[in-house]
Design brief:
Layout lengths: L2 H30 L3 H12 L10 H6 L1 H6 L3 H22 L5 H27 L4 H27 L1 H36 L9 H23 L5 H4 L5 H21 L1 H24 L2 H33 L3 H30 L2 H16 L2 H12 L3 H12 L1 H12 L3 H9 L4 H30 L1 H4 L7 H11 L2 H23 L4
Helix pairs in contact: 1-2, 5-8, 5-9, 6-7, 12-14, 12-17, 13-23, 14-17, 14-18, 14-20, 16-17, 17-20, 18-20, 20-23, 22-23
């Protein structure tokens, strides 16, 4: 390459660099809208090194979380709001707050008790009772407590200036961090905006108003509540009327009464179906001679998990037999088997149906979230209202808590089947049934089996809770141990429940670790 060509190439590269810089500068101006020259320089400085670039944004430091909210940097605005609120509260408490308010309330409470003890002492002296000295010692103790609290008040009020100075120093430190963080955070937002122009950029009146209003509300409410306790009563307690709660309770009870009255036949049919399955399993597990059941479980574990799993199952069954838990363990397995079987029979088809219908699953998923997050003692209330106490209610409670994993993991497994394989099968003329049974289900089987295993494990976790509403079995022993503080009985029964879970886990999962 000649010297003239080299010079031309250099000039061309410089022109391209200048064009890129000019284009980036225009984009920065479009992004920030205000003070573009300052941000061009800062962004160029930050982008020129892979290390953290030390810059300081004075406006961000002064405005604090308001500036971050105005720039849509809410992941920084929220924690800085909390930190600044803490500092402002300390300043307000130190300068204007009544630091001895809580202590004075305690003194007032103790003073009421002290007055009552004085009355008791006077009455005892008049009667010449034997417990006069007891009342005097009590009074001396209460007066000593009051004196100690009064000393605390004096100390707290003497530390007021220190608290205010600490809050000021803390607030200044937070402001310093905000100023240092501001430009790198905004530059990172700018990089995201370059690839996704739907992100909010610049400033807007609406966003600015939201930021100012939010921060000022937090500051004002926190300062009034902590620095001047009791000044605004509704800040401490939500303003409500007890009649609202009573009315809501009446409506809920009326709703459940209506459903129970008009759906009695439906609930009886469900209870009958559950009892049929439960009675059959109880005959199988409880009435069958123990050597038959033990041999069957050990053989099944051997076929599924190998000789090691069979030996472990034999040891677990031996434990249950030696410690007298055999019948209760079999009753637990019958109850668990009923809940798990019904959950699996209903859950897998529902998961298959939802896997290819996102809109249906979007409706089902919040219901399952509700079933899993609602405390078990809460959804036991409507179950008892509709099905009364007993084993059917225990089965339904167990199904509500443990039935969702099989649906979720069936959907996950079906959606994880590669589309290329399905398309190849369709191209070779596979029918829908063949596609489901020979392609989808075999490839989704690990996920579906994991869902079955999780359903069984969660159902077993409800053994103790279900015993509260009439379920028999090992959960009853644990419940009695809790009621009578019988540590030994509770531990032994708990291990029996654990061993039941381990046997079922080996049977279902086998060697698929």
């Amino acid at each position: 390459m000649s010297q003239a060509d080299s010079v031309l190439a250099t000039e061309t590269a410089e022109e391209l660099a200048e064009a890129r810089a000019e284009s980036r500068g225009e984009l920065v101006g479009e992004f920030v809208e205000t003070n573009p020259d300052y941000y061009r320089h800062q962004f160029e400085k930050i982008g020129s090194t892979s290390r953290f670039s030390w810059t300081f944004n004075l406006v961000a430091a002064l405005l604090g979380p308001i500036w971050f909210g105005m720039r849509s940097l809410w992941k920084w605005a929220l924690p800085f709001t909390i930190l600044e609120t803490f500092g402002v509260i300390q300043i307000a408490r130190g300068l204007f707050g009544d630091l001895g308010a809580d202590a004075r309330e305690r003194i007032a409470q103790i003073q009421g008790t002290l007055d009552f003890r004085y009355q008791q002492l006077d009455a005892a002296i008049k009667r010449e009772a034997d417990n006069v000295d007891v009342f005097r010692r009590t009074i001396d103790s209460l007066e000593g407590a009051i004196a100690g609290i009064e000393a605390e008040i004096v100390t707290a009020e003497a530390n007021a200036l220190s608290i205010a100075l600490f809050g000021l120093a803390f607030l200044a430190g937070v402001k310093l961090i905000e100023g240092i963080i501001a430009n790198p955070a905004l530059e990172n937002r700018f990089s995201e905006w370059l690839s996704d122009r739907t992100l909010r950029s610049g400033l807007s009146t609406w966003r600015t108003g939201i930021s100012i209003g939010f921060v000022m509300l937090i500051f004002a409410a926190s300062i009034v509540h902590y620095a001047f306790p009791g000044a605004v009563a509704w800040l401490a307690e939500f303003p409500t009327d007890p009649a609202i709660r009573r009315t809501a309770i009446e409506w809920v009870e009326a709703f459940f009464d209506f459903i129970r009255t008009h759906g009695e036949s439906v609930f009886e049919s469900i209870s009958y179906g559950i009892r049929v399955v439960l009675d059959a399993l109880e005959v199988l597990f409880v009435k069958t001679p123990w050597p038959v059941i033990a041999s069957f479980i050990i053989l099944l574990t051997w076929l599924s998990a190998g000789i090691g799993g069979a030996v472990a199952s034999a040891c677990f069954l031996l434990y249950m037999g030696l410690f007298g838990f055999w019948e209760k363990a079999m009753t637990t397995l019958a109850l668990l088997g009923t809940a798990a079987c019904i959950s699996i029979v209903l859950g897998i088809p529902l998961g298959l149906f939802c896997a290819r219908r996102p809109r249906v699953y979007a409706v089902i998923r919040p219901i399952m979230d509700f079933m899993q997050t609602m405390p078990s003692f809460v959804f036991m209330i409507p179950v008892i209202a509709f099905f009364s106490v007993g084993k059917p209610a225990a089965v339904i409670t167990t199904m509500i808590f443990g039935g969702t994993p099989v649906v979720r993991l069936t959907v996950l497994g079906m959606r994880g089947v590669p589309e290329s394989i399905r398309e190849a099968a369709i191209a070779y003329g596979a029918s829908k049934w063949y596609l489901l049974t020979k392609v989808d289900l075999p490839l989704a089987a690990p996920s579906i089996l994991a869902g079955v295993n999780q359903t069984i494990m969660l159902s077993l976790a409800m053994v103790v809770v279900a015993s509260l509403i009439g379920a028999k079995g090992l959960g009853e022993d644990v419940l009695e141990a809790l009621q009578y503080s019988s540590v030994g009985q509770g531990i032994l029964a708990g291990f029996a429940i654990l061993f039941c879970a381990m046997i079922l886990n080996r049977v279902i999962q086998g060697k698929r670790d």
